[in-house]
Amino acid sequence: MIRKTLSASVLAAMFLAKPAFAEEATIGRPIEAASLHEGRLDMVVYYVPVNGGLLEVTATFAPKIGGDPLRFVMGLADGDSVAFSMPGHQDSLYAFSRSGEEVTISTETDTYLRADATMR
Question: Were both Cys, which of 12, 23, 32, 112 would link to 17 (CB 3.0–4.6 Å)?
């Protein structure tokens, strides 16, 4: 009996700890913008080509409940990818990847943190 309960608990924890992609968008031309709205931040992102074959990606994050917007600018070479959380918003992961002239942006929310918050 204890073994079955433990197995069920481990399985449930693995399921709850798995991050889930909530939103994804791809932009394929300079100045073409995309927006994502999952989580506590809204985000608008676009890119422009710069010297050396890089795409300069600009993302602006705006808190839904007020506060100052946050801006992030980075250069992506073909094949690059990066993922990060914004200060004060560690429950959401933002991922950027480049393939040719396309930049794909996604948000990932930590379902374990969500489930933990609702259990209290």
Answer: 112
**CA dist., res. 100 & res. 77, Å (int):** 9
What is the residue type of 105?
I
**Low-confidence residues of the chain: pLDDT under 70:** 1-21, 110-120
Q: Which residues contact 47 (CB under 8 A, 6 or more apart)?
A: 27, 30, 31, 55, 56, 57, 58, 76, 103
Instruction: Supply the DSSP symbol for 42.
Output: E
Name residue 56's beta-bridge partners: 48, 75
Joined tokens for residue 5: 């309960």
CA dist., res. 15 & res. 28, Å (int):
34
Q: What domains appear along the chain, each with residue ranges and CATH number?
A: 18-119 (2.60.98)
Sign of CA dihedral 95, 22, 92, 70: positive
Cβ(12)–Cβ(101) under 8 Å? no
Reading the block at residue 114, the tokens are 């969500």
